[in-house]
Structure formats: structure tokens, C-alpha cells
């Protein structure tokens, strides 16, 4: 069997009393786009920094391409990182930033070779002709691309991305998500992205690991995580969900808001629903392609319903204070661990 | 902004006035007097007698030794001070626990609290026949003369001006984004290469500011060469004292002064241009 490109073996990292990463066995497969998803303080950035070599584990070992890299300093590791705020060198031109990694090698590549590589790397991130610019003359999106080119030019075993899109505005973020995905397919380098933004993780990755308090609680394809979360924590963090009391004390029932059907009365609800609940509309948020209702039922309490624009023709729209009927198909209700 | 512009301009004028008066009457006017004097003649009994001649300037070579001493020792001393100050500033800005920083910075500045003269006398003792040369003789290195040589002036300069050099370098190192150092390591640079490729270039504005301060003060200094150079290693400042107070040749002294100011301006101009061109961080350069 092929080695994982990066593998944690029982890695624990403590900062004083606090354990940031606990008995972690993360493994990154060659060629995949993997995201580590979790709230701030879950240990995802610490994990990334242990791969890059900026931190060393308190216990356990880090393997890169099957080689034990525990204790090896960052400058000897075959991985490269795109930093959260890019960390471009302000005293160097774009071209010198991008060629920085190649210039550290010995023997040093020739000037002609460096120039050719830089041109190629900049073309890859669609920044042709920006060689002589300074980093502070560039927009956030352009700086992001320079940071990508600077890392990818070294053809790392894994490209580590630390919340790379957090500093960009929403629209640019969408564009960069698509671009990153295409880039990863084109260069065939393994990408490991760390983020707290579930949308980012779901939209780009082949596989997502959800972290909590230093441990991986679930890992799988975005669709698996969304459709089959193992716990309330995952269901809540990956997408939105409604939670109702479960059959036992340690369980909850989770129903995604877009799987809840809503209609003016029971008669017009679709067939095959497990139960019907009459509700009162408390609030309505128009989101463009969807409308989100917050509704309340005497036994279930408050919950969310998400209706797509398309289905409004049959279901109609509801005003605050209206009564309506809701329900969902049996397979929409998942029984999950309450933790 | 609804305040009347006329009023805000009046307030600005009022705030600027003290500095303006100070500069005009204590800097520009005296400087012009010096320029006018430099074209005059020495009165028979000494002092100034009106004339218009370039003789004083043509005669500058007569004090060439003072110019040569100043223009070799001042840059050399500035360079040495920067070399000694950098590790101190680096240690303070990067390695020391932040809670000790202020105290240690104060300690760096502490020598300034005692009289400069007193400190130079201490060095005369240390560098004189019964000081360091005597200890060296004790371990077998005989006949070392330090006092009244250029070495004594260099040692005194580094010691005396270190407190001026450390803070600006400290500030530029403290501002340095530590993630840039991580980025450099991540891209395969060893710690030493990271220092020369990232840390040093980005600290250069601080080094330039400190060097300017030290260089300007050294160029005009006369106490240091007087005491530690013992009259054998004399600077332009010593030549000026001699010309104005001993031979009372004010016009020639004025010409030497103008030459000194001109050299300072030109040197600083090129130095700043060099440093700014190198770092590209124009905004941070003068901080």
C-alpha cells in the first residue's frame, strides 16, 4: 500500500497545561485535496504548524513521504505553506518572492532558469507580467496568488494552506475557491487546507476532517459529512441543522432545514412524510435563491425551514404570524450522538 | 469639518511659530553669518574684516589632516557602532522576555546619565599606560599604546554612541513580522540565510537612522578626539576650536565650517538614497 504523504502517529501537542492536539493520527493521501475543519482553538493550525516544522510534537511522530520527520526543522522539510496573511517579503519584488525557494537550493539554479520558472509559476496563477511589482502594490487577491506561486514553484510534497481565503472579500473568495480547486487538479500536488469556514471546506475538498479539541471526530467526503454526520457537533458545524430530543438521553434527532417540507395545510404537503406538524411562522429571511423561515410547534419548539425559490410556486410564501403545516420524510431524520 | 479654515490656519501658525522662530534665529541666521564670514578676511588683530575673497576656501587643504581624520574615523566608528549595536538590539527585540525589555533598554541608555567628560576621563585611565596596556604587558604582550591613537578614538566612539544606535535598530527589529522568518524557513532558508536575506534588509532603515545620528554627531565632535586622541588625532571640530579661539582667523574657520556642513549634507543625501533604494520600504525608512 502506498504511504500517506503526511502521517501523524499518535501526535500530542501541549502548550503548558493546554493540549492543543491529542493523540492525533491524521493521514494525508497523495494527490488529494484535504481540509481540516474546526472552530478556532480546535488544534487545526497547530497540526499544520507541526507538519511545516514550526512546532514539534510533545509526543508521537510526524512522517512525510514515509520518512520520520519528527524534530527536523522547517527548512529541511519538503512541504510549503501559504500563510494566512501571505507573509510576502516586503523588500523583494514579486519575482524575487516567487524564486525565493529555488534560490535557497544548492547548487543555485542559473538566472535564466530562475526567470523561466518564475514566468511559468506566475502564468499558473494568472499574474503574467507582474515580475517587477512590489507586494504592497498588489491587491489582496493578487498577493494571495503570489503566495501560491511562491510555494508551488518548489513542487512540495504537500501544499499547506492556513485559512488562505480568510482575508478576501466574499466574491473574491468564491473565485479563489474555484481557482484553487482547478490549480490543484492541474499541478497534481497534494493540498491540505485548514479552515473554520465549512462552506470553503465542503466546496473545494475531496475529503474533510472535522476536528474538535485536538482530535479528529469525523473524516470523509463533503457529501458523507453532510448526509451522515456522526454526531450533533459535526451536523451543527457542517451546514445548518435542526435538533430535536432523541429517543434516549444521549441522542438527538437532526433534520436539515432544506429537507423540511412546508405548505399552507396538510392536504397540500407532499406524500410519504413521516409526520405532520402544524406550525406558526415566527420569522422570515429572504436569501435570494432560498427563503429561510423560523417556525414554532407546541411539541417540537422552534426550528428552521429552508425553501428554494423554485418550490414556492407550489408551496406559496408565508407571512410572519401565518399558520402552516410542515413535515419531513423518514430518512431525513437522523439519530445522532448528542455530544 | 465645519471649523472655519481661517481659524484653523491661525491655530496651526501659532503651533508652528516657536519652532519657526527657533530655526530662523538660531539656525538659519547664524548659518548665513558663517557663510558671509567665510568670504571675508582676517582682521589684523584677529576676527573678521569684510571682504569678498575665495582665499579661505582655496586654503582648505592647509587643514587637510583634520578632514582626512574626520572622514575616515567618523564613518569607521559609525560602522563599528552599528556592528556592536545590532546584536544588542536583536537580543532585546527578539530573544528577551517582553517584560524585561523596557528595563534593559533603560540600562542601555544609562551611560547617558553621567557626564560625557567623566566617562572620557574613565577611558583615559583604562586605555592609558596603567590601564589595559599594563594588563596586556602582564600576560606578555608588551608595548601596546592605545591612548592618543585612532584606536582610542574608535573605542570611545563606539562606547559613547552605542546608546544612540541601539534604539532605532531595536524599533525596526521589533516591528519585523515574525511570520516572514517562518516563511523564509518554510521556503528552505537556513537560519543564517534567513538573517541575511530577511532580518537584516528589513532592519536596514533602523540601522540607517541610527548611523545618521551617530555619524552627524561624530563629524562635529571635538571632545572625543581632544581627550582620547590627546591632540594627536584631531577632527574638524578641533581645527575649528583652534581657528576661532587660538589663531582668531574667523573667516578661515567659517570656511572650514561651511565645508563641514556641505560634506555632511552630501554624505547624508547619498546614504539615505542608497538605503531607501535598497529596502524599498520608503514609508518605514524614517521611523
Number of strands of chain B: 2
Tell me the structural class of chain A. Answer: alpha+beta
Spatial strand order of the main sheet of chain A: 7-8-9-4-10-11
Portion in helices of chain B: over 70%
Computed over alpha carbons, the radius of gyration of chain A is 24 Å
Overall structural class of chain B, as computed from helix and strand content, comes to mainly alpha
Mean pLDDT of chain A: 92
Q: Mind summarizing the main beta sheet of chain A?
A: 6 strands, mixed
CATH class of chain B: Mainly Alpha
> What is the succession of H and E elements of chain B?
HEEHHHHHHHHHHH
Number of strands of chain A: 19
**CATH overall fold name of the largest domain in chain A:** Rossmann fold
The CA-CA distance between the termini of chain B, in Å, is: 29 Å
What is the annotated CATH architecture of chain B?
Orthogonal Bundle
Largest sheet features of chain B = 2 strands, antiparallel
State which percent range the strand residues of chain A make up.
25-35%
What does this structure look like?
The complex is a heterodimer of chains A (339) and B (287). Chain A contains ten helices and 19 strands. By secondary structure, chain A is of the alpha+beta class. Chain A folds into two domains: 6-230, 3-Layer(aba) Sandwich (Rossmann fold), CATH 3.40.50.300; 240-337, RNA polymerase II/Efflux pump adaptor protein, barrel-sandwich hybrid domain (OB fold (Dihydrolipoamide Acetyltransferase, E2P)), CATH 2.40.50. A six-stranded mixed beta sheet of chain A has the order 7-8-9-4-10-11, with helices on both faces. In chain A, strands 1, 2, 3, 5 and 6 form a five-stranded antiparallel beta sheet that branches. Chain A has a five-stranded antiparallel beta sheet with strand order 14-18-15-16-17. The two termini of chain A are 35 Å apart. Chain B has 287 residues and is mainly alpha-helical. Helices cover 74% and strands 1% of the residues of chain B. Chain B has helices at 5-38, 55-58, 64-95, 98-109, 116-127, 132-138, 150-175, 178-186, 191-219, 223-228, 236-246, 250-279, and strands spanning 41-42, 48-49. Chain B has a two-stranded antiparallel ribbon. In chain B, strand 1 (41-42) and strand 2 (48-49) form a beta hairpin. The longest helix of chain B has 34 residues, at 5-38. The interface between A and B is medium-sized, with 25 and 21 residues.
Amino acid at each position: 500500500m502506498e504511504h500517506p504523504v503526511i502521517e501523524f502517529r499518535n501526535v500530542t501537542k501541549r502548550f503548558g497545561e493546554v493540549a492543543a492536539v491529542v493523540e492525533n493520527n491524521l493521514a494525508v493521501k497523495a494527490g488529494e485535496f484535504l481540509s481540516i475543519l474546526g472552530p478556532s482553538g480546535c488544534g487545526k493550525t497547530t497540526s499544520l504548524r507541526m507538519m511545516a516544522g514550526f512546532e514539534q510534537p510533545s509526543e508521537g511522530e510526524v512522517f512525510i513521504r514515509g520518512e520520520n520527520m519528527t524534530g527536523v526543522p522547517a527548512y529541511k522539510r519538503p512541504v510549503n505553506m501559504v500563510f494566512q496573511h501571505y507573509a510576502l517579503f516586503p523588500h523583494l519584488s514579486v519575482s524575487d518572492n516567487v524564486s525565493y525557494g529555488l534560490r535557497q537550493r544548492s547548487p543555485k539554479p542559473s538566472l535564466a532558469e530562475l526567470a523561466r520558472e518564475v514566468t511559468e509559476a506566475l502564468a499558473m496563477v494568472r499574474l503574467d507580467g507582474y515580475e517587477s511589482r512590489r507586494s504592497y502594490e498588489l491587491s489582496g487577491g493578487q498577493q494571495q496568488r503570489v503566495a501560491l506561486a511562491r510555494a508551488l514553484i518548489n513542487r512540495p510534497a504537500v501544499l499547506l494552506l492556513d485559512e488562505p481565503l480568510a482575508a478576501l472579500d466574499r466574491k473574491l473568495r468564491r473565485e479563489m475557491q474555484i481557482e484553487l480547486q482547478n490549480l490543484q487538479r492541474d499541478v497534481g500536488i497534494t493540498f491540505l487546507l485548514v479552515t473554520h469556514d465549512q462552506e470553503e471546506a465542503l466546496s473545494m475538498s475531496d475529503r474533510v476532517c472535522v476536528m474538535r479539541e485536538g482530535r479528529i471526530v469525523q473524516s470523509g467526503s463533503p457529501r458523507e459529512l453532510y448526509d451522515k454526520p456522526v454526531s450533533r457537533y459535526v451536523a451543527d458545524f457542517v451546514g445548518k441543522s435542526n435538533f430535536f430530543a432523541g429517543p434516549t438521553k444521549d441522542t438527538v434527532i437532526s433534520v436539515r432545514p432544506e429537507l423540511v417540507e412546508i405548505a399552507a395545510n396538510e392536504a397540500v404537503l407532499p406524500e410519504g412524510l413521516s409526520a405532520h406538524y402544524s406550525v406558526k411562522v415566527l420569522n422570515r429571511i429572504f436569501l435570494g435563491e432560498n427563503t429561510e423561515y423560523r417556525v414554532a410547534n407546541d411539541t417540537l419548539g422552534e426550528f428552521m425551514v429552508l425553501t428554494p425559490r423554485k418550490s414556492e410556486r407550489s408551496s406559496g410564501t408565508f407571512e410572519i404570524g401565518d399558520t402552516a403545516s410542515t413535515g419531513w420524510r423518514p430518512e431525513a431524520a437522523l439519530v445522532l450522538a448528542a455530544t | 469639518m465645519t471649523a472655519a479654515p481661517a481659524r484653523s490656519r491661525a491655530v496651526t501658525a501659532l503651533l508652528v511659530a516657536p519652532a519657526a522662530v527657533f530655526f530662523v534665529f538660531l539656525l538659519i541666521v547664524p548659518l548665513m553669518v558663517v557663510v558671509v564670514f567665510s568670504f571675508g578676511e582676517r582682521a589684523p588683530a584677529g576676527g573678521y574684516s569684510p571682504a569678498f575673497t575665495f582665499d579661505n576656501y582655496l586654503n582648505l587643504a592647509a587643514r587637510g589632516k583634520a578632514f582626512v581624520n574626520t572622514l575616515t574615523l567618523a564613518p569607521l566608528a559609525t560602522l563599528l557602532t552599528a556592528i556592536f549595536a545590532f546584536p544588542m538590539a536583536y537580543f532585546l527585540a527578539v530573544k528577551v522576555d517582553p517584560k524585561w525589555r523596557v528595563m534593559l533598554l533603560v540600562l542601555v541608555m544609562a551611560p547617558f546619565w553621567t557626564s560625557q567628560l567623566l566617562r572620557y576621563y574613565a577611558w583615559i585611565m583604562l586605555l592609558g599606560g596603567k590601564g589595559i596596556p599594563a594588563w596586556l604587558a602582564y600576560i606578555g604582550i608588551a608595548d601596546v599604546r592605545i591612548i592618543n591613537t585612532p584606536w582610542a578614538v574608535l573605542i570611545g566612539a563606539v562606547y559613547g554612541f552605542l546608546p544612540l544606535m541601539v534604539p532605532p535598530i531595536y524599533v525596526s527589529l521589533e516591528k519585523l513580522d515574525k511570520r516572514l522568518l517562518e516563511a523564509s524557513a518554510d521556503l528552505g532558508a537556513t537560519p543564517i540565510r534567513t538573517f541575511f536575506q530577511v532580518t537584516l534588509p528589513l532592519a536596514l532603515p533602523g540601522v540607517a537612522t541610527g548611523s545618521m545620528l551617530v555619524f552627524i554627531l561624530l563629524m562635529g565632535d571635538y571632545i572625543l578626539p581632544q581627550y582620547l586622541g590627546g591632540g594627536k588625532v584631531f577632527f574638524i571640530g578641533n581645527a575649528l576650536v583652534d581657528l576661532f579661539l587660538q589663531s582668531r582667523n574667523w573667516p578661515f574657520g567659517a570656511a572650514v565650517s561651511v565645508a563641514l556642513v556641505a560634506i555632511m549634507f552630501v554624505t547624508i543625501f547619498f546614504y539615505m538614497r542608497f538605503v531607501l533604494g535598497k529596502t524599498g520600504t520608503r514609508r518605514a525608512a524614517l521611523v
